[in-house]
Design goal:
Helix content is 34%, strand content 14%. Strands 7-6-5-8-9 form a five-stranded parallel sheet, with helices on one face. A four-stranded parallel sheet has the order 2-1-3-4, sandwiched between helices. It starts with 14 loop residues before the first helix and ends in a 5-residue tail after the last helix. By secondary structure, it is of the alpha/beta class. Bound molecules: phosphoric acid mono(formamide)ester (CP). Phosphoric acid mono(formamide)ester (CP) binds next to α2.
């Protein structure tokens, strides 16, 4: 039962609960009219301490399309955060007004501090380089709608695997499925962090390889998950400039890819996927962004305990 719970990382949902969320998202996609009053009278608060386009707008669109309303900030200095108010006091105050809150924060663990300070459901919309569980819901729904499930997939993860929180969350979530294999494609400096390598991959005996060239593994992949080099997490601009264009997916590199390989990207993209790829039938990143709204509609309904017969 998801009602009343906070979602701070992908493992906060069992695989059975994920299926419930995806089943409802599929139902909403098939018949959105049926859900236009599902959240009448409910209020979502969006607390974004870091920039966002997809996550914030898709959560807000999700609540509005369910008949609910939205309050929040996308510029924390417009709130009493600028006067030094703590996360705990901010969320306790927001809970006086809203039914559910979504928080993005540059500090890892900030949404957990918020969730611990209130009984209102709090959703982590990305905390530093740590986790982004609702991006994972978006990614998984997109894969499930194309592949029918997650077993026996070979998933290539390419780019900034060190700071890319969407990658960390996706690996965690997929680690629970049978026959899953990963190929990590990154420069030495941007390899996955130890807590994912040891705590998730090794702990669950999940096969993975680390390579430097995407062309070497392209033909094996069922999913290629491209990521942006996370400029905002670098301490040194020279390192960012040196690494930022290391991987650029173009049509030439796709020649050996499977006909049904899925190209995903959480977006925003910078240079890592050439625009010419957008018209390839395997390029699914805008479909993925759209699915993000539907899966967040489903999640909001589940956390608020709302059912539509
Ligand atoms: N995928 C994602 O988190 O995008 P935004 O940063 O635009 O929300």
């Amino acid at each position: 039962m998801l009602k009343g719970r906070s979602i701070l990382e992908p493992m906060d949902m069992t695989t059975a609960e994920l299926e419930e969320i995806f089943d409802l998202a599929d139902a909403i996609i098939d018949d959105p009219e049926k859900y236009v009053h599902a959240c009448d009278g409910k209020l979502l608060a969006t607390l974004f301490y870091e920039p966002s386009t997809r996550t914030r707008f898709s959560f807000e669109a999700a609540m509005l399309r369910l008949g609910g309303k939205v309050i929040g900030f996308s510029e924390p200095n417009s709130s009493s955060v600028a006067k030094g108010e703590s996360i705990a006091d901010t969320i306790r105050t927001i809970a006086c007004y809203a039914d559910i809150a979504v928080m993005r924060h540059p500090k890892e663990g900030a949404p957990r501090i918020a969730a611990n300070a209130t009984d209102m459901p709090v959703i982590n919309a990305g905390d530093g380089g740590h986790q982004h569980p609702t991006q994972t819901l978006t990614d998984l729904l997109t894969i499930r709608r194309r592949k029918g499930g997650f077993n026996n997939l070979t998933v290539g993860l390419c780019g900034d695997l060190k700071f890319g929180r969407t990658v960390h969350s996706l690996i965690k979530a997929l680690s629970r499925y049978e026959g899953i294999k990963f190929v990590m494609i990154s420069p030495e400096e941007l390899r996955i962090p130890e807590y994912v390598r040891k705590g998730v991959l090794d702990a669950n005996s999940i096969p993975y390889r680390e390579v430097k060239k995407m062309q070497d593994v392209m033909s094996e992949l069922d999913v290629l998950y491209m990521t942006r080099v996370q400029r905002e997490r670098f301490f040194n601009e020279d390192d960012y400039i040196r690494l930022k264009d290391r991987y650029i997916l173009d049509l030439d590199k796709l020649v050996s890819a499977k006909e049904d390989m899925m190209i995903l990207h959480p977006l925003p993209r910078v240079n890592e996927i050439a625009v010419e790829v957008d018209s390839d039938s395997r390029a699914l990143y805008f479909e993925q962004a759209k699915n993000g709204m539907f899966v967040r509609m489903s999640l909001i309904m589940k956390l608020l305990g709302i059912e539509v017969q």
